Amino acid sequence: MDAGRLVMVIVPAFNEGRAVKATVELLLAAGYRVVVVDDGSTDETVEVGRLPVVYLRHAVNLGQGAALQTGMTYALRAGAEIAVHFDADGQHDCGQIEHLIAPIVAGQADVVFGSRFLRSQDRAQVPWKKRILLRGGILISWAMTGMLLSDTHNGFRALSRRALERVRLQENGFAHATEIMQRVREAGMRYLEVPITITYSEYSQQKGQKLSGSLSILFDLIMAKLTK
Question: Has residue 1 been placed in a domain?
Answer without folding.
Answer: no
